[in-house]
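Feature request, filed as a ticket because there's no other form

It would be nice if the structure record came with a short human-readable summary line next to the tokens. Right now we just get the raw output. Example of a typical job, pasted below so the devs can see what we mean:
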Amino acid sequence: MVEYAIDKEFYNIFDGLNIQQDKLTTFLTSFHQLLENQNEKFNHQLEKEKAILKADLKEELLKELASKADIIEVKKEIENNGGVAAVIGFDVSDESAFVEGIKTIIDSDGELSYLVNNAGITNDKLAMRMSVEDFKKVIDANLTSTFIGCREALKVMSKKRFGSVVNVASIVAEMGNLGQANYVASKGGVVAMTKTFAL
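Raw output as currently delivered:
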């Protein structure tokens, strides 16, 4: 249907011009072949991108499942030793999700006495090849989440005048590390921010 429309349009354009029918047919045939070749290249590239995306998603899923398995194992160990434990999952870089997670804990336990800000990701690249998005993603996961956790924990702990917050940083915050401008900045920020919160 599309090819017919293209053919008809070309015939209308060339109608009345002194162009032989066989030359016009040859031109249209070549034009169609070009479209088919481009379409093949596009489909090939699309399949390649889909395969890469599928592999990335599979890797992320496997990591997530492994992480959940470890968490469940810790929960069982606590319960087997007479303790009480619950698993609450949320994205720490999402402010509303983090706040809601803290609220869920307080509603359940009536308090929040301890918090460990241990979330961390990397996305290593040379700075000249690192996009702002690459930079911000690591900052949000490592630094912004730590700020949100400290802020919300202190709201609760200050009322009781009791509690402890542990922020996990990295040695690279002091030393720097090639290809980790985003990670180093995030962990350096955690160190400086923790000192400020402690004042």
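Something like this underneath would help us a lot:
The two ends are 73 Å apart (CA to CA).
The chain has six helices and two strands.
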